[in-house]
Amino acid sequence: MTKYDVTVIGAGPGGYVAAIRCAQLGLKTAIIEKYSTLGGTCLNVGCIPSKALLDSSHHYHDATKHFEKHGIGVEGLSLNFEQMIARKGEVVDQTTSGIDYLMSKNNIDRYEGVGSFFDTTHINIAKPDGSVEKIESAKTIIATGSKPSTLPFISLDKKRVITSTEALTLKEVPKHLIVIGGGVIGLELGQVYARLGAEVSVIEYMPKIVPGMDAMLSKELQKSLKKQGLKFFVGHKVTSVTNTGDEVVVTADDKKGNPVEFKGDYSLISVGRRPYTDGLGLNNIGIVTTERGQIETNEHLQTNIPNIYAIGDVVKGAMLAHKAEEEGTMVAEFIAGEKPHINYNLIPGVVYTWPEVAAVGKTEEQLKEEGVNYKVGSFPMRALGRARASMDIDGQVKVLADATTDEILGVHMIGARAADMIAEAVVAMEFRASAEDVSRMSHAHPTYTEAIKEACLAATDDRALHV
Ligand code: FAD
Protein backbone atom coordinates (compact mmCIF):
# COMPACT_ATOMS: atom_id res chain seq x y z
CA MET A 1 0.00 0.00 0.00
CA THR A 2 1.38 3.43 -0.94
CA LYS A 3 1.96 5.73 2.05
CA TYR A 4 1.81 9.51 2.04
CA ASP A 5 2.57 12.32 4.46
CA VAL A 6 -0.48 14.20 3.17
CA THR A 7 -3.42 13.31 0.93
CA VAL A 8 -5.75 15.98 -0.43
CA ILE A 9 -9.29 14.96 -1.38
CA GLY A 10 -10.66 17.29 -4.07
CA ALA A 11 -8.65 19.21 -6.68
CA GLY A 12 -10.36 22.61 -6.73
CA PRO A 13 -8.43 25.81 -5.97
CA GLY A 14 -8.30 24.86 -2.28
CA GLY A 15 -7.13 21.31 -2.87
CA TYR A 16 -4.61 21.75 -5.66
CA VAL A 17 -2.99 24.76 -3.96
CA ALA A 18 -2.76 22.79 -0.68
CA ALA A 19 -1.12 19.90 -2.56
CA ILE A 20 1.44 22.18 -4.27
CA ARG A 21 2.35 23.89 -0.98
CA CYS A 22 2.68 20.53 0.81
CA ALA A 23 5.00 19.30 -1.96
CA GLN A 24 7.02 22.53 -1.84
CA LEU A 25 7.51 21.92 1.89
CA GLY A 26 8.94 18.47 1.22
CA LEU A 27 5.89 16.38 2.14
CA LYS A 28 5.07 13.27 0.08
CA THR A 29 1.69 14.26 -1.31
CA ALA A 30 -1.23 12.69 -3.14
CA ILE A 31 -4.35 14.32 -4.59
CA ILE A 32 -7.63 12.51 -5.27
CA GLU A 33 -10.18 13.97 -7.70
CA LYS A 34 -13.35 12.24 -8.80
CA TYR A 35 -13.56 14.00 -12.17
CA SER A 36 -11.11 13.44 -15.01
CA THR A 37 -10.10 17.12 -15.04
CA LEU A 38 -8.49 19.01 -12.16
CA GLY A 39 -9.41 22.49 -10.99
CA GLY A 40 -12.75 21.80 -9.30
CA THR A 41 -15.79 24.05 -9.57
CA CYS A 42 -13.73 27.17 -10.16
CA LEU A 43 -11.84 26.07 -13.26
CA ASN A 44 -14.44 23.74 -14.78
CA VAL A 45 -17.85 25.25 -14.07
CA GLY A 46 -17.27 28.42 -12.06
CA CYS A 47 -14.86 31.35 -12.03
CA ILE A 48 -13.05 30.70 -15.30
CA PRO A 49 -15.87 29.72 -17.73
CA SER A 50 -18.14 32.45 -16.34
CA LYS A 51 -15.42 35.06 -16.89
CA ALA A 52 -14.80 33.71 -20.41
CA LEU A 53 -18.49 34.23 -21.27
CA LEU A 54 -18.58 37.60 -19.51
CA ASP A 55 -15.66 38.76 -21.66
CA SER A 56 -17.07 37.41 -24.93
CA SER A 57 -20.50 38.91 -24.29
CA HIS A 58 -18.86 42.19 -23.27
CA HIS A 59 -17.11 42.39 -26.66
CA TYR A 60 -20.42 41.71 -28.40
CA HIS A 61 -22.21 44.32 -26.30
CA ASP A 62 -19.51 46.92 -27.03
CA ALA A 63 -19.68 46.16 -30.73
CA THR A 64 -23.46 46.53 -30.81
CA LYS A 65 -23.84 49.47 -28.41
CA HIS A 66 -20.62 51.46 -28.15
CA PHE A 67 -18.45 51.09 -31.24
CA GLU A 68 -20.45 53.61 -33.27
CA LYS A 69 -19.84 56.32 -30.68
CA HIS A 70 -16.10 55.58 -30.94
CA GLY A 71 -16.34 56.09 -34.70
CA ILE A 72 -16.15 52.43 -35.59
CA GLY A 73 -18.72 51.16 -38.05
CA VAL A 74 -19.62 47.49 -37.84
CA GLU A 75 -21.66 46.11 -40.67
CA GLY A 76 -23.08 42.62 -40.74
CA LEU A 77 -22.25 42.00 -37.07
CA SER A 78 -23.54 38.62 -35.97
CA LEU A 79 -23.46 36.39 -32.95
CA ASN A 80 -22.02 32.88 -33.23
CA PHE A 81 -23.12 31.55 -29.85
CA GLU A 82 -21.83 28.07 -30.56
CA GLN A 83 -18.34 29.49 -31.13
CA MET A 84 -18.63 31.59 -27.96
CA ILE A 85 -19.37 28.46 -25.92
CA ALA A 86 -16.60 26.55 -27.76
CA ARG A 87 -14.03 29.26 -26.94
CA LYS A 88 -15.07 29.09 -23.30
CA GLY A 89 -14.45 25.34 -23.46
CA GLU A 90 -10.96 25.90 -24.85
CA VAL A 91 -10.14 28.33 -22.04
CA VAL A 92 -11.31 25.74 -19.50
CA ASP A 93 -9.25 22.99 -21.16
CA GLN A 94 -6.08 25.09 -21.20
CA THR A 95 -6.55 26.11 -17.58
CA THR A 96 -7.34 22.65 -16.21
CA SER A 97 -4.48 21.02 -18.12
CA GLY A 98 -2.21 23.66 -16.56
CA ILE A 99 -3.08 22.10 -13.18
CA ASP A 100 -2.09 18.63 -14.51
CA TYR A 101 1.30 20.13 -15.33
CA LEU A 102 1.63 21.68 -11.86
CA MET A 103 0.83 18.35 -10.21
CA SER A 104 3.49 16.47 -12.15
CA LYS A 105 6.04 19.29 -11.84
CA ASN A 106 5.68 19.11 -8.05
CA ASN A 107 5.80 15.28 -7.97
CA ILE A 108 2.30 15.01 -6.56
CA ASP A 109 0.68 11.60 -7.12
CA ARG A 110 -2.70 12.05 -8.74
CA TYR A 111 -5.55 9.57 -8.30
CA GLU A 112 -8.77 9.72 -10.31
CA GLY A 113 -11.75 8.47 -8.32
CA VAL A 114 -14.00 9.11 -5.33
CA GLY A 115 -12.05 9.26 -2.08
CA SER A 116 -13.68 8.00 1.11
CA PHE A 117 -12.37 7.43 4.61
CA PHE A 118 -11.81 3.79 5.56
CA ASP A 119 -10.41 4.93 8.90
CA THR A 120 -8.55 8.05 10.04
CA THR A 121 -5.33 7.14 8.21
CA HIS A 122 -6.59 5.05 5.28
CA ILE A 123 -8.52 6.26 2.23
CA ASN A 124 -10.30 4.14 -0.34
CA ILE A 125 -10.31 5.43 -3.89
CA ALA A 126 -13.20 4.14 -6.03
CA LYS A 127 -11.85 4.45 -9.57
CA PRO A 128 -13.81 4.98 -12.79
CA ASP A 129 -13.05 1.36 -13.90
CA GLY A 130 -14.82 0.03 -10.79
CA SER A 131 -11.66 -0.96 -8.91
CA VAL A 132 -10.86 0.31 -5.42
CA GLU A 133 -7.37 1.25 -4.27
CA LYS A 134 -6.49 1.89 -0.64
CA ILE A 135 -3.75 4.33 0.35
CA GLU A 136 -2.34 5.27 3.74
CA SER A 137 -1.94 8.89 4.74
CA ALA A 138 -0.61 10.39 7.96
CA LYS A 139 -2.62 13.57 7.36
CA THR A 140 -5.57 14.32 5.09
CA ILE A 141 -6.96 17.63 3.82
CA ILE A 142 -10.62 17.57 2.79
CA ALA A 143 -11.23 20.04 -0.05
CA THR A 144 -14.42 18.65 -1.57
CA GLY A 145 -16.01 22.03 -2.23
CA SER A 146 -19.67 22.72 -2.89
CA LYS A 147 -22.58 22.10 -5.28
CA PRO A 148 -25.42 24.39 -6.36
CA SER A 149 -28.28 24.34 -3.88
CA THR A 150 -31.96 24.84 -4.56
CA LEU A 151 -35.18 25.57 -2.69
CA PRO A 152 -37.08 22.57 -1.32
CA PHE A 153 -39.98 22.99 -3.78
CA ILE A 154 -37.85 23.51 -6.90
CA SER A 155 -36.83 20.50 -8.90
CA LEU A 156 -33.75 21.14 -11.01
CA ASP A 157 -34.47 19.33 -14.27
CA LYS A 158 -31.26 20.85 -15.73
CA LYS A 159 -33.03 21.41 -19.07
CA ARG A 160 -35.14 24.50 -18.46
CA VAL A 161 -34.81 24.80 -14.69
CA ILE A 162 -31.05 25.05 -14.54
CA THR A 163 -28.06 25.81 -12.31
CA SER A 164 -24.98 27.83 -13.19
CA THR A 165 -23.36 24.66 -14.55
CA GLU A 166 -25.98 24.26 -17.32
CA ALA A 167 -26.12 28.05 -17.88
CA LEU A 168 -22.48 27.87 -18.96
CA THR A 169 -23.19 25.35 -21.72
CA LEU A 170 -26.58 26.31 -23.18
CA LYS A 171 -27.21 25.53 -26.85
CA GLU A 172 -29.16 28.74 -27.47
CA VAL A 173 -29.53 32.22 -26.06
CA PRO A 174 -32.70 32.22 -23.92
CA LYS A 175 -35.54 34.45 -25.01
CA HIS A 176 -36.48 35.17 -21.41
CA LEU A 177 -34.19 34.02 -18.61
CA ILE A 178 -35.75 34.13 -15.16
CA VAL A 179 -32.94 34.34 -12.62
CA ILE A 180 -33.93 33.30 -9.12
CA GLY A 181 -31.45 34.86 -6.68
CA GLY A 182 -29.80 38.25 -7.15
CA GLY A 183 -26.39 37.23 -5.84
CA VAL A 184 -23.05 37.19 -7.62
CA ILE A 185 -23.58 34.13 -9.82
CA GLY A 186 -27.12 35.05 -10.91
CA LEU A 187 -26.11 38.60 -11.81
CA GLU A 188 -22.96 37.61 -13.71
CA LEU A 189 -24.77 35.02 -15.83
CA GLY A 190 -27.84 37.24 -16.13
CA GLN A 191 -25.67 39.97 -17.60
CA VAL A 192 -24.05 37.53 -20.07
CA TYR A 193 -27.44 36.61 -21.54
CA ALA A 194 -28.87 40.14 -21.37
CA ARG A 195 -25.93 41.31 -23.50
CA LEU A 196 -26.61 38.54 -25.98
CA GLY A 197 -30.22 39.64 -26.42
CA ALA A 198 -32.21 37.75 -23.77
CA GLU A 199 -34.87 39.40 -21.66
CA VAL A 200 -33.58 38.85 -18.11
CA SER A 201 -35.72 39.08 -14.97
CA VAL A 202 -33.98 38.79 -11.61
CA ILE A 203 -36.13 37.77 -8.66
CA GLU A 204 -34.58 38.31 -5.22
CA TYR A 205 -36.13 37.49 -1.84
CA MET A 206 -34.19 40.15 0.08
CA PRO A 207 -34.98 43.86 -0.39
CA LYS A 208 -31.71 44.39 -2.35
CA ILE A 209 -29.45 42.53 -4.74
CA VAL A 210 -25.99 41.27 -3.60
CA PRO A 211 -27.46 41.40 -0.08
CA GLY A 212 -24.21 40.85 1.85
CA MET A 213 -22.47 43.82 0.27
CA ASP A 214 -22.52 47.49 1.28
CA ALA A 215 -25.91 49.05 0.44
CA MET A 216 -24.26 51.64 -1.83
CA LEU A 217 -22.94 48.82 -4.04
CA SER A 218 -26.32 47.08 -4.25
CA LYS A 219 -28.04 50.32 -5.21
CA GLU A 220 -25.47 51.43 -7.79
CA LEU A 221 -25.19 47.98 -9.37
CA GLN A 222 -28.95 47.60 -9.67
CA LYS A 223 -29.19 51.07 -11.24
CA SER A 224 -26.48 50.27 -13.74
CA LEU A 225 -27.78 46.82 -14.70
CA LYS A 226 -31.29 48.24 -15.04
CA LYS A 227 -29.94 50.75 -17.58
CA GLN A 228 -28.54 47.75 -19.47
CA GLY A 229 -32.00 46.19 -19.64
CA LEU A 230 -32.12 43.71 -16.73
CA LYS A 231 -35.38 43.76 -14.79
CA PHE A 232 -35.37 43.43 -11.00
CA PHE A 233 -38.02 42.10 -8.66
CA VAL A 234 -36.57 42.49 -5.16
CA GLY A 235 -38.50 41.56 -2.03
CA HIS A 236 -40.22 38.80 -4.01
CA LYS A 237 -40.68 35.36 -2.51
CA VAL A 238 -40.71 32.63 -5.17
CA THR A 239 -43.42 30.06 -4.45
CA SER A 240 -43.17 27.68 -7.42
CA VAL A 241 -41.10 26.92 -10.51
CA THR A 242 -42.65 24.65 -13.14
CA ASN A 243 -41.27 23.35 -16.41
CA THR A 244 -44.33 23.03 -18.63
CA GLY A 245 -42.41 21.57 -21.59
CA ASP A 246 -41.32 24.50 -23.70
CA GLU A 247 -41.64 27.11 -21.00
CA VAL A 248 -40.96 27.74 -17.31
CA VAL A 249 -43.60 29.32 -15.12
CA VAL A 250 -42.43 30.97 -11.90
CA THR A 251 -44.86 32.21 -9.29
CA ALA A 252 -43.93 34.54 -6.46
CA ASP A 253 -45.41 36.80 -3.81
CA ASP A 254 -44.42 40.43 -4.36
CA LYS A 255 -43.43 42.91 -1.63
CA LYS A 256 -47.07 43.35 -0.59
CA GLY A 257 -47.80 39.63 -0.63
CA ASN A 258 -49.72 39.73 -3.93
CA PRO A 259 -49.16 36.75 -6.23
CA VAL A 260 -47.25 37.43 -9.46
CA GLU A 261 -46.34 35.14 -12.36
CA PHE A 262 -43.34 35.07 -14.71
CA LYS A 263 -43.08 33.05 -17.91
CA GLY A 264 -39.77 32.36 -19.60
CA ASP A 265 -37.94 29.66 -21.52
CA TYR A 266 -35.24 29.09 -18.88
CA SER A 267 -35.00 29.68 -15.14
CA LEU A 268 -31.56 29.90 -13.54
CA ILE A 269 -31.68 28.87 -9.90
CA SER A 270 -28.85 30.76 -8.20
CA VAL A 271 -29.86 30.73 -4.56
CA GLY A 272 -26.48 29.70 -3.18
CA ARG A 273 -24.28 26.63 -2.87
CA ARG A 274 -24.13 23.84 -0.34
CA PRO A 275 -21.01 22.21 1.09
CA TYR A 276 -20.36 18.87 -0.61
CA THR A 277 -19.40 15.82 1.45
CA ASP A 278 -21.42 13.06 -0.26
CA GLY A 279 -19.57 9.76 -0.52
CA LEU A 280 -16.67 10.91 1.68
CA GLY A 281 -17.52 8.47 4.45
CA LEU A 282 -17.37 11.12 7.18
CA ASN A 283 -19.55 8.93 9.41
CA ASN A 284 -16.98 6.11 9.23
CA ILE A 285 -14.62 8.21 11.30
CA GLY A 286 -17.06 10.52 13.13
CA ILE A 287 -16.15 13.87 11.56
CA VAL A 288 -18.47 16.55 12.90
CA THR A 289 -20.45 18.78 10.53
CA THR A 290 -22.62 21.81 11.27
CA GLU A 291 -26.37 21.87 10.66
CA ARG A 292 -25.63 23.62 7.33
CA GLY A 293 -23.49 20.63 6.32
CA GLN A 294 -20.13 22.40 6.65
CA ILE A 295 -17.26 20.44 8.18
CA GLU A 296 -16.51 21.90 11.59
CA THR A 297 -12.93 23.08 12.13
CA ASN A 298 -10.85 25.00 14.68
CA GLU A 299 -8.76 28.09 13.86
CA HIS A 300 -6.10 25.86 12.25
CA LEU A 301 -8.81 24.32 10.01
CA GLN A 302 -8.36 21.06 11.88
CA THR A 303 -11.46 18.88 12.22
CA ASN A 304 -12.39 17.02 15.41
CA ILE A 305 -10.03 14.27 14.15
CA PRO A 306 -6.63 15.96 14.70
CA ASN A 307 -4.83 14.55 11.62
CA ILE A 308 -7.67 15.57 9.27
CA TYR A 309 -8.14 19.14 8.05
CA ALA A 310 -10.81 20.79 5.88
CA ILE A 311 -10.62 23.90 3.67
CA GLY A 312 -12.51 25.94 1.07
CA ASP A 313 -16.22 25.85 0.29
CA VAL A 314 -16.74 22.77 2.49
CA VAL A 315 -15.99 24.79 5.66
CA LYS A 316 -17.42 28.05 6.99
CA GLY A 317 -16.69 31.42 5.42
CA ALA A 318 -16.97 33.03 2.03
CA MET A 319 -17.37 30.58 -0.85
CA LEU A 320 -14.57 32.07 -2.93
CA ALA A 321 -11.69 30.54 -4.82
CA HIS A 322 -9.06 32.85 -3.32
CA LYS A 323 -10.33 32.12 0.20
CA ALA A 324 -9.98 28.38 -0.54
CA GLU A 325 -6.45 28.95 -1.89
CA GLU A 326 -5.35 30.88 1.22
CA GLU A 327 -6.71 28.10 3.38
CA GLY A 328 -4.87 25.48 1.29
CA THR A 329 -1.59 27.28 1.84
CA MET A 330 -2.28 27.84 5.52
CA VAL A 331 -3.07 24.20 6.27
CA ALA A 332 -0.02 22.94 4.33
CA GLU A 333 2.24 25.28 6.28
CA PHE A 334 0.61 24.38 9.59
CA ILE A 335 1.13 20.67 8.86
CA ALA A 336 4.79 21.43 8.06
CA GLY A 337 5.19 23.02 11.51
CA GLU A 338 4.96 26.67 10.49
CA LYS A 339 2.71 29.32 12.07
CA PRO A 340 0.62 30.71 9.20
CA HIS A 341 -2.31 33.11 9.56
CA ILE A 342 -5.21 34.36 7.41
CA ASN A 343 -6.85 37.74 7.93
CA TYR A 344 -10.41 36.79 6.93
CA ASN A 345 -11.50 40.43 7.16
CA LEU A 346 -9.26 41.16 4.19
CA ILE A 347 -10.57 38.54 1.75
CA PRO A 348 -11.98 40.73 -1.04
CA GLY A 349 -15.38 40.07 -2.60
CA VAL A 350 -15.90 40.74 -6.31
CA VAL A 351 -18.80 40.73 -8.78
CA TYR A 352 -17.52 40.53 -12.36
CA THR A 353 -20.44 42.32 -13.96
CA TRP A 354 -19.73 45.56 -15.82
CA PRO A 355 -19.42 47.81 -13.98
CA GLU A 356 -17.41 45.55 -11.71
CA VAL A 357 -18.05 45.56 -7.99
CA ALA A 358 -15.36 44.92 -5.41
CA ALA A 359 -15.12 45.31 -1.67
CA VAL A 360 -12.90 44.55 1.27
CA GLY A 361 -13.24 45.07 5.02
CA LYS A 362 -16.33 46.29 6.83
CA THR A 363 -19.51 47.61 5.23
CA GLU A 364 -21.16 50.75 6.57
CA GLU A 365 -23.97 48.56 7.91
CA GLN A 366 -21.46 46.44 9.88
CA LEU A 367 -19.68 49.48 11.32
CA LYS A 368 -23.01 50.94 12.45
CA GLU A 369 -23.98 47.65 14.04
CA GLU A 370 -20.63 47.41 15.82
CA GLY A 371 -20.98 51.01 17.06
CA VAL A 372 -17.71 52.11 15.41
CA ASN A 373 -17.23 55.83 14.95
CA TYR A 374 -16.32 56.10 11.27
CA LYS A 375 -16.09 58.65 8.49
CA VAL A 376 -16.82 58.28 4.79
CA GLY A 377 -15.00 59.51 1.69
CA SER A 378 -16.58 58.92 -1.73
CA PHE A 379 -15.54 59.75 -5.25
CA PRO A 380 -17.61 59.29 -8.43
CA MET A 381 -16.00 57.56 -11.42
CA ARG A 382 -17.52 60.13 -13.79
CA ALA A 383 -15.16 62.77 -12.37
CA LEU A 384 -12.14 60.83 -13.68
CA GLY A 385 -10.59 61.75 -17.03
CA ARG A 386 -9.79 58.08 -17.56
CA ALA A 387 -13.44 57.06 -17.12
CA ARG A 388 -14.64 59.67 -19.59
CA ALA A 389 -11.96 58.70 -22.12
CA SER A 390 -13.26 55.14 -22.19
CA MET A 391 -16.96 55.99 -21.65
CA ASP A 392 -17.09 53.95 -18.44
CA ILE A 393 -18.44 56.60 -16.11
CA ASP A 394 -20.78 54.57 -13.87
CA GLY A 395 -19.84 53.92 -10.28
CA GLN A 396 -17.86 55.28 -7.35
CA VAL A 397 -15.29 54.41 -4.71
CA LYS A 398 -16.25 54.67 -1.06
CA VAL A 399 -13.66 54.56 1.71
CA LEU A 400 -14.66 54.03 5.33
CA ALA A 401 -12.08 55.11 7.89
CA ASP A 402 -11.96 55.25 11.67
CA ALA A 403 -13.10 58.73 12.73
CA THR A 404 -10.33 59.05 15.33
CA THR A 405 -7.32 57.17 13.95
CA ASP A 406 -8.09 57.54 10.20
CA GLU A 407 -7.29 53.79 9.71
CA ILE A 408 -9.08 52.42 6.64
CA LEU A 409 -11.77 49.99 7.76
CA GLY A 410 -13.51 49.21 4.49
CA VAL A 411 -13.30 50.02 0.78
CA HIS A 412 -16.29 49.54 -1.53
CA MET A 413 -16.03 50.24 -5.22
CA ILE A 414 -18.15 49.90 -8.31
CA GLY A 415 -16.84 50.82 -11.73
CA ALA A 416 -14.60 49.68 -14.55
CA ARG A 417 -11.72 47.44 -13.40
CA ALA A 418 -12.78 47.44 -9.74
CA ALA A 419 -11.92 43.73 -9.55
CA ASP A 420 -8.25 44.54 -10.12
CA MET A 421 -8.21 47.81 -8.21
CA ILE A 422 -9.40 46.25 -4.96
CA ALA A 423 -5.89 44.81 -4.50
CA GLU A 424 -4.65 48.30 -3.62
CA ALA A 425 -7.18 48.50 -0.79
CA VAL A 426 -6.20 45.03 0.46
CA VAL A 427 -2.51 45.99 0.57
CA ALA A 428 -3.27 49.28 2.31
CA MET A 429 -5.46 47.60 4.91
CA GLU A 430 -3.02 44.71 5.45
CA PHE A 431 -0.45 47.35 6.42
CA ARG A 432 -3.09 49.21 8.45
CA ALA A 433 -2.79 52.36 6.35
CA SER A 434 -4.76 55.48 7.17
CA ALA A 435 -6.86 57.21 4.52
CA GLU A 436 -4.29 60.02 4.57
CA ASP A 437 -1.44 57.53 3.88
CA VAL A 438 -3.12 56.40 0.68
CA SER A 439 -4.15 59.93 -0.28
CA ARG A 440 -0.47 61.00 -0.17
CA MET A 441 0.72 58.23 -2.50
CA SER A 442 1.14 59.08 -6.17
CA HIS A 443 -1.40 57.35 -8.42
CA ALA A 444 -0.69 57.30 -12.14
CA HIS A 445 -2.78 59.69 -14.22
CA PRO A 446 -5.07 59.00 -15.94
CA THR A 447 -6.15 55.76 -14.25
CA TYR A 448 -9.22 54.48 -12.46
CA THR A 449 -7.06 54.08 -9.33
CA GLU A 450 -7.14 57.85 -8.92
CA ALA A 451 -10.67 57.35 -7.61
CA ILE A 452 -9.19 55.48 -4.61
CA LYS A 453 -6.78 58.31 -3.89
CA GLU A 454 -9.58 60.88 -4.25
CA ALA A 455 -11.94 58.90 -1.99
CA CYS A 456 -9.15 58.78 0.61
CA LEU A 457 -8.67 62.54 0.22
CA ALA A 458 -12.43 62.94 0.68
CA ALA A 459 -12.23 60.87 3.87
CA THR A 460 -9.33 63.04 5.11
CA ASP A 461 -11.00 66.37 5.91
CA ASP A 462 -13.06 66.41 2.72
CA ARG A 463 -10.03 67.24 0.54
CA ALA A 464 -10.98 65.57 -2.77
CA LEU A 465 -9.40 67.59 -5.59
CA HIS A 466 -11.48 66.79 -8.66
CA VAL A 467 -15.08 67.25 -7.47
P1 FAD B 1 -14.27 23.05 -5.50
O1 FAD B 1 -13.71 23.99 -6.49
O2 FAD B 1 -15.74 22.85 -5.48
O3 FAD B 1 -13.54 21.66 -5.73
C1 FAD B 1 -13.87 20.51 -5.03
C2 FAD B 1 -13.43 19.31 -5.82
O4 FAD B 1 -13.55 18.16 -5.00
C3 FAD B 1 -14.30 19.05 -7.05
O5 FAD B 1 -13.48 18.96 -8.19
C4 FAD B 1 -14.99 17.72 -6.73
O6 FAD B 1 -15.19 16.93 -7.87
C5 FAD B 1 -13.99 17.08 -5.80
N1 FAD B 1 -14.57 16.06 -4.92
C6 FAD B 1 -15.66 16.16 -4.13
N2 FAD B 1 -15.84 15.03 -3.40
C7 FAD B 1 -14.84 14.20 -3.75
C8 FAD B 1 -14.46 12.90 -3.33
N3 FAD B 1 -15.13 12.25 -2.36
N4 FAD B 1 -13.38 12.34 -3.90
C9 FAD B 1 -12.67 12.98 -4.86
N5 FAD B 1 -12.97 14.23 -5.28
C10 FAD B 1 -14.03 14.83 -4.72
N6 FAD B 1 -15.08 32.27 -6.79
C11 FAD B 1 -14.23 33.30 -6.93
O7 FAD B 1 -13.41 33.52 -6.04
N7 FAD B 1 -14.26 34.10 -8.03
C12 FAD B 1 -15.16 33.92 -9.03
O8 FAD B 1 -15.16 34.65 -10.01
C13 FAD B 1 -16.08 32.85 -8.91
N8 FAD B 1 -16.99 32.62 -9.86
C14 FAD B 1 -17.84 31.55 -9.76
C15 FAD B 1 -18.77 31.35 -10.75
C16 FAD B 1 -19.65 30.28 -10.68
C17 FAD B 1 -20.64 30.06 -11.79
C18 FAD B 1 -19.55 29.39 -9.58
C19 FAD B 1 -20.46 28.19 -9.50
C20 FAD B 1 -18.63 29.59 -8.57
C21 FAD B 1 -17.77 30.69 -8.64
N9 FAD B 1 -16.84 30.95 -7.64
C22 FAD B 1 -15.99 32.02 -7.75
C23 FAD B 1 -16.74 30.11 -6.42
C24 FAD B 1 -15.55 29.15 -6.55
O9 FAD B 1 -15.73 28.35 -7.70
C25 FAD B 1 -15.47 28.28 -5.30
O10 FAD B 1 -15.42 29.10 -4.16
C26 FAD B 1 -14.21 27.43 -5.33
O11 FAD B 1 -14.20 26.59 -6.47
C27 FAD B 1 -14.10 26.57 -4.06
O12 FAD B 1 -12.94 25.82 -4.13
P2 FAD B 1 -12.80 24.42 -3.36
O13 FAD B 1 -11.41 23.96 -3.66
O14 FAD B 1 -13.20 24.59 -1.95
O15 FAD B 1 -13.87 23.44 -4.01
Note the beta-strand portion: 25-35%
Number of domains: 3
Main beta sheet: strand number and arrangement?
7 strands, mixed
User: CATH topology of the largest domain, which one?
Assistant: FAD/NAD(P)-binding domain
Low confidence ranges:
none
N- and C-termini, Cα separation: 69 Å
CA radius of gyration: 24 Å
CATH class of the largest domain: Alpha Beta
Total of DSSP H or I helical runs spanning 4+ residues? 14
CATH architecture term of the largest domain:
3-Layer(bba) Sandwich
Number of strand segments: 22
Overall shape: it is globular
CATH-wise, what's the superfamily of the largest domain?
A: FAD/NAD(P)-binding domain
> Class by helix and strand content?
alpha/beta
Structure description:
- The chain is of the alpha/beta class and 467 residues long.
- 32% of the residues lie in helices and 25% in strands.
- The protein has helices spanning 13-24, 40-45, 47-65, 81-105, 164-167, 184-195, 215-227, 282-285, 321-335, 364-369, 385-389, 418-430, 435-439, 450-459, and strands at residues 3-9, 29-33, 109-112, 114-119, 122-126, 132-142, 146-148, 161-162, 176-180, 199-204, 231-234, 237-243, 248-253, 259-264, 266-269, 273-275, 308-310, 349-351, 356-361, 374-380, 396-402, 408-415.
- Strands 1, 2, 3, 4, 5, 6 and 17 form a 7-stranded mixed beta sheet that branches. Strands 8-15-9-10-11 form a 5-stranded parallel beta sheet.
- The chain is globular.
- Flavin-adenine dinucleotide binds next to helix 1, strand 2, helix 2, helix 3 and strand 4.
